[in-house]
Design goal:
The complex is a heterodimer of chains A (426) and B (293).
Chain A lengths: L1 H25 L2 E7 L7 H15 L3 E7 L3 H13 L6 E5 L3 H6 L3 E2 L8 H7 L4 H4 L3 E2 L2 E2 L2 E13 H6 L11 H11 L7 E4 L6 H11 L17 H15 L11 H9 L3 E7 L3 H7 L4 E4 L9 E11 L4 H15 L1 H11 L12 H9 L5 H5 L3 E2 L7 H16 L5 H16 L4
Parallel strand pairs in A: 1-2, 1-3, 8-9, 11-12
Antiparallel strand pairs in A: 3-11, 4-11, 5-6, 7-9, 7-10, 7-11
Chain B lengths: L3 H35 L16 H7 L2 H33 L5 H13 L2 H12 L5 H8 L11 H30 L2 H9 L4 H12 L1 H17 L2 H6 L11 H11 L3 H29 L4
Helix pairs in contact in B: 1-13, 2-13, 3-7, 3-10, 4-7, 7-10, 10-13, 12-13
The chains are: A alpha/beta (426), B mainly alpha (293).
Chain lengths: 426, 293
Amino acid sequence: MKKQLRKVSLGVAAALGMALSSSLAWAATELNMYYPVAVGGPLTKVVDGMVSNFMAENPDIKVNAIYAGNYNDARIKALAALESGQPAQLSVMFSIDLNELRELDAIVPFDEVVSTDEERAWLKSFYPSLMENGTSVGKTWGIPFQRSTIVMYYNKDAFKAAGLDPESPPQSWNELVEKGKKLTKADGSQWGMMIPSTGYPYWMFGALAMQNGEVLMNGSGDTTYFNKPGVAQALNFWKDLGSKHKVMPEGTIEWGTLRKNFLEEKTAIMWHSTGNLTAVKKGAKFDFGVAMLPAGKRRGTPTGGGNFYIFKKASDNERAASLKLIRFMTDPERSASWSVATGYMGISPASYETDKLKSYVKEFPPAAVARDQLEFATAELATYQAGRIRKSLDDAIQATLIGSKTAEEALGEAQSTAEKILKSYR
Amino acid sequence: MLTINQKRNLQGWALFAPAAFLLIAFTHYPTVATFFKSLFSNNSIIRPSRFTGFESYQNLLNDPIFWKVFTNNMWLALGTIPTSIGLAIVMALIVNKAIPGRSFLRIAYFTPTMLPMIAVANIWLFFYAPGIGLLDQIAEIFGIESHNWLGSTSTVLPAIMVMTVWKEAGFFMIFYLAGLQTISPELGEAAELEGSSRWNYFWRVQFPLLLPTTLFVLINAFLNSFKLVDHLFVLTKGGPDNASNLILYYIYETAFSFLDISYASALTVFLLFLLAITALAQFYFVDKRVHYR
């Protein structure tokens, strides 16, 4: 009986060994990568295409790219996979998840993964404003991938119809209100402008606050400035667009249906992610333009979007393979094609120097707006306990927009909630 | 050797084991684990987990958002349950009669139930969208001003109630239809011979005989009003300013967006407790008055 058992177990071990070695011969390293898609369009195909090109070039690495829903879902799925012991070596996740991922001890800084000087130089090859959300405590934890800023899409035909110059979109808050009034039709069939206030209200608000000369948090993500007078002013301006100037519908405006509103000419101007650019280009039956957001005291927008992270649980081998994959996905050529396919921006100055993106920008100038705007960009709201703090700010913004609280009152409450949570991180 | 009695016992346990295993693994163990988690603080490298007792529950009582989502849920239950039950009975009475196109009508009533909630929400998102939505386009014909249904506090919850009733009434109709078909036709004939009105017949005969169905539907409807939150992901994410937020969605946010497992566990325990109490109360009070045959 014992002998038999030993025989069986030997057999099993041998079979396992064979299976293992055969898979080793076929692919030395297997990587699981989760990634999100936050805007419309068949972006999963684009990612899958890039990944299969990578595997063709690197037959010793097998990559399973797993589409995981929106940013929130992607984080949940990747973390759940790690928790349950399933392998996940790298992932594209929200750039602002950084502090929470760090606190969970889930990710490893790139400084520990790169080894050569050439690789260290690569870490510095991206636009600095895109790295703001990827660095913390002096280390680099996230590499930009699908990155965006907020831009202003406007309907040139509607501008002409209202007697406005279609080549001069509003440059300042005053112009925005003035032109908005001309673009708003009295019968309600066309609004002057729409700024979405569901989904990611704090993101849009980051732009308005910065245009009013304020930021929402400090660099280390442990202090927020929601209750500064300038911040309340920015929120009051947002509310006034609807309630006082009547150039925007009152109440909240849905993130998900906004693009359709713009494409159906229900609004002449919309503020939205650059990630929508290609979808708008394909869907618009009218002539449209893309411009930088207008300036209050100054211009401003937060950056947004997703970064690559490498998980701590990955072995040295897997980390090296992940780095290889990330370098492939973010190299200038790939970044250029990604930008053309989606509207997300090229992430390094070198990507805008490629022939592909150069000629695309020449033929379609809106593609360069996000890049030009980077000069005025700041980090997206990213703190410790970011989910809860975002939510308190989102609630404050919505409460103000629907008129149930004043801006000062709502932001004061959000600030004291944030204060309570962040106190212990300082 | 085992005695007959022992054998029988063993057999009983063996038959019970698969069900017991599933129940323990997927219902009882998670419930107990959730309760334990609610007694400890969250674990992170900066701050390891520690025993906090009932602190999470104290936070719960002091959390204005919790009270907001709780009242929202109660309004939702109040707004949807009587309406969907009423509609379900009316629809069941209609399709129970021999009318032309009966099976078509039955399918039409049942279609909303067959659609997944996410699909339903996506359809209704474009019904409610201001300007481009179906509702507003109809309103435009009559010269009524466009309304931001999901974007204002006063209409968002009613808008969600309407959608929920639309989705649920067809489902409950099926149970009432089944209930109606078990009522012997002789009762109807007798009522007709006696000259009883249809109204009288419904209230004196059909409705009392349908009470077991009503109890079942009532419990289901109440549980559903706490369990169905899929549409919030698509429609409002609980906004504006928590005006359409519900307990279960708040639990999801707390657990997966705020990563606050401890507080999410406390909320879950509260929800479980609430549902258990109501189910018990319904069985206890209503059962006495229900006439089973």
